[in-house]
Design goal:
Oligomer: heterodimer
CATH architecture of one domain in chain B: 2-Layer Sandwich
Number of helices of chain B: 15
CATH class of the largest domain in chain A: Alpha Beta
Helix content of chain A: 25-40%
Number of strands of chain B: 20
Radius of gyration of chain A: 22 Å
Largest sheet of chain A: 8 strands, antiparallel
Largest sheet of chain B: 7 strands, antiparallel
Strand content of chain B: 15-25%
Strand order of the largest sheet of chain B: 15-12-14-13-18-20-16
Chain lengths: 416, 500
C-alpha cells in the first residue's frame, strides 16, 4: 500500500492542498493523541529509524501554490509540495538555479529535501541546503503556523529556526514553505572523467582539484565496481578490474572553463592517470546518472560526513575489508562526504555488513546515517550516528515543539 | 549617569579563586569600559571576569548560577546593536584571553580557534598556507570570532561567500548548567539537530562558545577591484542591478553616497569627481580568465550607465588604497558630526532605490543628516545618522529616524538586520516582522537551552529564560536610547508587515 513504511501502514492518509489544511490536520492529529509522518515525494522517506507509531501519513505533495521568484533579488519562495525539478525549470528561464542539487529532482519536493537535508553532487562547491535557506514557515505539531528568517538574501533577525528545522526530518514541525538564496547558472559546464590504477594518485589528484585555484562544481572519487561502471557510462573503458575514477564537473565562462579543463587534463597526464576523457553533455549526464542510479539501486547505503581525507581513508578500508566485490564508494572531496553502496546483499547478511562498515567509519571523527537498509538493520541499530553529549538538549528541544511526540516519532537521531 | 550596581564580595572571591585576582574586575572605575559597546546604549556590569580556558568559563558559569547572577559573554565589544551591553547587573565573562589558534588542517581546510581570536588574525595566521577565513566584518581588525558567532556577522565579501554561519563547522559551548558540549565538529554535517545553526546568531543568549571549528577557503588566484563614480545614485543602482542580471556574483559590491564622499575626502584625499553623487566598488576574484571575463562585463555596464571615472586595482597596495575610503568611511563621519548611529537594514535588491529615497525623506522630515555606505549587492543598507551625543534632543531624533528607516525596510519586504543583530537596538521592532506565535516559537528554543522549571535548572537563577545576555533579542527586554529620554511609547510601529 502507498505510504507504508518499515512494514507499518497508516490508518489515514491526508493530502492538504493549502496552509490552513496543513494546520487543521496537524492540530486534529495532535489533539487525538495520534502520530503523523510527513511525506513529500517519498524519495528519502526511508531515511530514519522505525517509527514507534504511525497513524497518519501527512502527504504534502499536493501543497504547491504559487512560486515567488524574484530574479533581481535572486530569491525564491516555494511551498512544501513543489518539486525541486519544477523550481529549477522555472529558475532556469531567468538564468538562475538552486545552489544545491538533489537526487531525483522530478520527484523530490522542497519540503522533503529541506527536512531531510538532501545531499547532492554540487555540495562539493556550494555546501548543503542549510547554507541556502534564508527563511522558513514551520507548522508546529499543534497546528500553530510560525516563521523565521526572511526573504532577503541576508538577514539576522531572531533565532534561526530555519536552520534548526533543516535536516530535522520534520520532528520539530512541518516545513511548509522555504525561501532560498539563488545562484546564476554558469555560462558553461564541462565534466571530465579521469581514472587511475593507483589509489594514492587518484586521491592526490582529487585533493589537488578541491584545494587548487578553482573549486570544481562537483568532485567525486569513485572506487569499487561502480568506478568502472561510471567510466563505461561515460563511453570509455578502463583497462583493469580495479580502478579509481574521478568525476569532475567544472563551471564558468568559456575562457575560464578552457583553463580549468587544461589544468585537470594536465594534472591527469603528469600524474600518469590510466585514462581521461573530456565528456560531451550526453556522456557527462550518463556518468553522473550512473552514480545516482547506483545509490537508488543499492540494497544498503551509508553516508559518512567527515574531513575529506578521512572519507578517502574510510573508503579504502571499507573496500579492503569487504570480502565480496559488491561494495562501491563515492567520496565527495569538496564537501567531505562518503557514500558506501552495497549491492546484491542478502538481507540476512546486512546487519553484519553494516556493522563492519560502521566500525571503519567510527575510526574517524565523523557522522553517518544509514540511508538505505533492510528492516533487520533498523531493528538492531540507530540509523544515525551518536550525537554525543548534546542528546539531552536535543530531547529538550523536541519536547518544546512537539511535547506529545506526534511528528515522526522515534525516527530521528537518538531515536527522538 | 549609569545606575549603581551591587556586587557580592563572596562572588568576587570565588571568581578570583578560579582565574586569579588580576583577572576579576569589580571596582566601579575599572568597570566603566565594560558598560558599552559600539552602540549607543550603556549599562554597568557587577563584575567582569577574564578566564583563560573553557574549563574556567564552565566554573564561572556555575559560580554565577550559585549567586543567581546573569551572565554576558563579551568579545571585543564592537557590537552595533547593544549585544555586549550587560543589562540586569550581569557578570561579564570577557573572552579576550582565549585567543589561541588551536589547530590548522590545511589539507582539509579546517581551523579550530578560541572565541577571543580577532577575526583578521585568523586569515593572517593561515595566509602562508594560501588560505583565508571568509567572513570579514568592517571591524575585522578588532572584533572577535566569538562575537561574530553571537551576531552571525557578515561583511563586504559575504555577497559571494556567505555569512558566519556558512563557515562554522562546530562549536564547543558552555551551557546554562556549566556543562561543556560540542555542537557539530570539524565535518560539514553532524547527526541530530543543527544546534550549531541554531546557536550562530543567537546573540549570546543560549550559551557561551569556547571553541570554534571553521572552514578555510583557498585564496583566489586573481583579484580585480574596480571603483566607479556616478553623477546620480540611480545610475549607480542601475549598474548594480545590471551586474546581477548579467549572471554574476561579484565578491563585493559596495556603494557610498555624496555625504560619505564628503566625509572621506579630507581624510584620505581620494579626489573623487566633485559632481559625483555615488561611488561604487566592484570586486571580482577567481581564476585569471574568469576575472578577465567578469571585468569586461562590469566595465561595460559601468560605462553604459555613464560612469564619470573608473579606477582599477589588481595588486594589493592599489587595492588597499581603493578600499581605504569604503573601509574608513564610518570613522570619517567624525568630520561631519561627533557621533553616528549606524543603522543596519536589508531590502530586496530591486527595492534599493525606492528605500534609499525614503531614507532621504525620513532624514528631511526628522531634520537629521544621513550618510549612506552599504553592501549594495545584497541590499544591506547602513544609513549612518549623524548627531551630537551631548544634545539629547539630537540623539532622540537619530533613534526615531533609525526606527522609521527600519520600518521602511520591512515594508519593502526586507529585514531588520543584515549583520548587526537585534540586541537592544531593534527588539522593539521585532513585531514588525514576527507575530506572537513566531516569537513564542523562538522563545521555546531558549527555554530548551536554559531550562523551564526549577527542577531542571540551576538553583536560585533569576528569570530562567534569560540566563545569558538578558534583555536582548526579544521585545520588552530593554529600551533603545533610554538614557536619552526614549520611552517604550516613543516608537510605535504604524503597522506590521508580515513577510508571508
Amino acid at each position: 500500500m502507498s505510504h507504508s513504511l518499515d512494514g507499518l501502514t497508516p490508518s489515514t492518509i491526508e493530502r492538504p492542498e493549502n496552509l490552513e489544511q496543513v494546520s487543521e490536520i496537524l492540530a486534529a492529529v495532535t489533539k487525538a493523541g495520534h502520530s503523523a509522518i510527513p511525506w513529500g515525494g517519498g524519495t528519502r522517506i526511508g531515511v530514519g529509524n522505525i517509527p514507534t507509531s504511525y497513524d497518519t501519513a501527512l502527504d504534502l505533495s499536493m501543497f504547491k501554490g504559487e512560486i515567488e521568484h524574484e530574479p533581481g533579488d535572486m530569491t525564491v519562495v516555494a511551498n512544501a509540495g513543489v518539486t525541486i525539478g519544477t523550481l529549477n525549470d522555472l529558475l532556469a528561464k531567468e538564468g538562475q538555479r538552486l545552489p544545491f542539487e538533489v537526487r531525483n529532482p522530478a520527484q523530490a519536493t522542497v519540503g522533503g529535501s529541506v527536512a531531510s537535508n538532501a545531499p547532492g553532487h554540487r555540495q562539493s562547491s556550494t555546501g548543503g541546503i542549510r547554507d541556502w535557506v534564508i527563511g522558513m514557515q514551520i507548522v508546529l505539531a499543534d497546528g500553530t503556523v510560525t516563521k523565521s528568517g526572511g526573504r532577503v538574501v541576508k538577514n539576522v533577525q531572531g533565532y534561526e529556526m530555519h536552520r534548526l528545522n533543516t535536516g530535522a526530518f520534520g520532528t520539530l514541525g512541518i516545513v511548509s514553505q522555504a525561501a532560498f538564496k539563488l545562484l546564476p547558472l554558469p555560462p558553461e559546464q564541462q565534466t571530465i572523467i579521469v581514472w587511475f590504477d593507483s589509489r594514492e594518485t587518484a586521491q592526490d589528484v582529487g585533493m589537488s582539484f578541491v584545494n587548487g585555484l578553482f573549486m570544481p562544481e562537483a568532485t567525486s572519487l569513485i572506487s569499487g565496481p561502480l568506478a568502472n561502471k561510471t567510466v563505461e557510462a561515460a563511453g570509455e573503458s578502463a583497462s583493469t578490474d580495479e580502478s579509481w575514477a574521478l568525476l569532475v564537473r567544472l563551471g564558468g565562462g568559456i575562457r575560464s572553463i578552457e583553463r580549468q579543463v587544461n589544468e585537470v587534463v594536465g594534472a591527469a597526464g603528469s600524474n600518469s592517470a590510466t585514462g581521461y576523457a573530456v565528456l560531451s553533455d550526453v556522456a557527462a549526464s550518463a556518468a553522473w546518472s550512473a552514480l545516482d542510479d547506483a545509490e537508488t539501486n543499492a540494497d544498503l547505503s551509508v553516508r559518512m560526513t567527515s574531513l575529506p581525507v578521512a572519507t578517502m581513508n574510510a573508503a579504502h578500508s571499507i573496500r579492503s575489508s569487504s570480502k565480496q566485490n559488491n561494495v562501491s564508494t563515492i567520496c565527495d572531496l569538496g564537501f567531505g562526504a562518503l557514500t558506501v553502496l552495497v549491492s546484491s546483499s542478502d538481507e540476512s547478511h546486512q546487519p553484519n555488513t553494516t556493522n563492519s562498515i560502521l566500525a571503519e567509519i567510527e575510526k574517524h571523527p565523523a557522522s553517518y546515517v544509514i540511508e538505505k537498509c533492510a528492516l533487520n538493520v533498523k531493528q538492531s541499530v540507530d540509523v544515525f550516528s551518536d550525537v554525543g553529549s548534546s542528546i539531552a538538549l536535543m530531547k529538550r528541544i523536541k519536547s518544546q515543539y512537539d511535547p506529545s511526540n506526534t511528528l515522526n516519532p522515534g525516527r530521528f537521531a537518538g531515536k527522538i | 549617569m549609569s545606575p549603581k550596581t551591587t556586587v557580592s564580595s563572596s562572588l568576587i572571591s570565588e571568581l578570583s579563586n578560579i582565574v586569579g585576582d588580576q583577572y576579576v574586575v569589580w571596582k566601579p572605575e575599572d568597570l566603566l569600559v565594560y558598560e558599552y559597546d559600539g552602540s549607543i546604549d550603556k549599562a554597568p556590569p557587577q563584575a567582569v571576569v577574564l578566564p583563560s580556558t573553557a574549563e574556567e568559563v564552565s566554573q564561572i558559569v556555575k559560580i554565577a548560577n550559585k549567586h543567581g547572577a546573569y551572565i554576558v559573554a563579551r568579545g571585543a565589544g564592537t557590537s552595533l546593536s547593544g549585544g555586549a551591553v550587560p543589562l540586569r547587573n550581569s557578570v561579564v565573562i570577557a573572552l579576550t584571553r582565549l585567543t589561541a589558534l588551536i589547530e590548522v588542517d590545511a589539507v582539509n581546510r579546517v581551523a579550530v580557534v578560541e572565541p577571543g581570536m580577532i577575526n583578521l588574525h585568523l586569515s593572517q595566521k593561515v595566509s602562508h598556507l594560501g588560505l583565508f577565513y571568509a567572513p570579514d566584518p568592517a571591524s575585522q581588525k578588532t572584533c572577535t570570532i566569538g562575537g561574530n558567532i553571537g551576531e552571525n556577522a557578515g561583511g563586504p565579501h559575504c555577497l559571494a561567500l556567505g555569512v558566519t554561519t556558512n563557515h562554522v563547522l562546530g562549536l564547543e559551548v558552555v551551557l546554562a548548567d556549566g556543562s561543556l558540549t560540542w555542537f557539530g565538529g570539524t565535518q560539514r554535517e553532524a547527526s541530530g539537530y543543527d544546534l550549531r545553526g541554531a546557536f550562530v546568531g543567537s546573540e549570546g543568549t543560549l550559551g557561551i562558545v569556547t571553541k570554534i571549528a571553521v572552514r578555510l577557503l583557498p585564496k583566489p588566484e586573481t583579484i580585480h577591484s574596480m571603483l566607479a563614480a556616478f553623477t546620480t545614485m540611480d545610475a549607480a543602482s542601475d549598474t548594480v542591478s545590471e551586474i546581477i542580471a548579467a549572471g554574476m556574483v561579484p565578491s563585493a559590491l559596495e556603494m557610498m553616497d555624496r555625504n560619505t564622499i564628503d566625509a572621506v575626502e579630507p581624510f584620505y584625499h581620494p579626489g573623487y569627481p566633485a559632481e559625483a553623487q555615488a561611488v561604487l566598488i566592484v570586486e571580482v576574484d577567481g581564476l585569471k580568465e574568469s576575472v578577465e571575463e567578469q571585468t569586461e562585463t562590469v566595465l561595460d555596464i559601468c560605462n553604459r550607465n555613464g560612469a564619470m571615472e573608473i579606477r582599477e586595482a589588481d595588486d594589493e597596495a592599489t587595492r588597499d588604497k581603493l578600499w581605504q575610503t569604503r573601509k574608513g568611511a564610518i570613522g570619517a563621519y567624525g568630520t561631519i558630526a561627533p557621533t553616528y548611529y549606524l543603522v543596519d537594514g536589508v531590502v530586496p535588491r530591486t527595492k534599493l532605490r525606492e528605500v534609499l529615497q525614503q531614507v532621504d525623506q525620513i532624514a528631511a522630515e526628522l531634520d537629521v543628516t544621513v550618510a549612506n555606505v552599504f553592501h549594495a549587492g545584497d541590499g544591506n543598507i547602513h544609513p549612518a545618522i549623524l548627531f551630537n551625543e551631548r544634545n539629547p534632543a539630537e540623539v532622540k531624533q537619530a533613534i526615531l529616524a533609525g526606527a522609521k528607516i527600519l520600518e521602511a525596510c520591512v515594508a519593502a519586504g526586507g529585514a531588520l538586520s543584515g549583520e548587526h543583530g537585534i540586541g537592544i537596538e531593534k527588539q522593539a521592532y521585532m513585531p514588525l516582522v514576527f507575530n506572537e506565535d513566531d516569537l513564542e516559537a523562538m522563545a521555546r528554543l531558549r527555554t530548551a537551552f536554559i531550562g523551564e522549571s526549577p527542577e531542571d535548572a540551576p538553583i536560585d537563577v533569576p528569570s530562567l529564560g534569560e540566563r545569558f545576555n538578558p534583555g536582548k533579542v526579544f521585545p520588552g527586554g530593554a529600551i533603545h536610547g533610554e538614557a536619552y529620554g526614549i520611552t517604550a511609547e516613543s516608537f510605535r510601529p504604524t503597522g506590521t508587515q508580515d513577510w508571508q
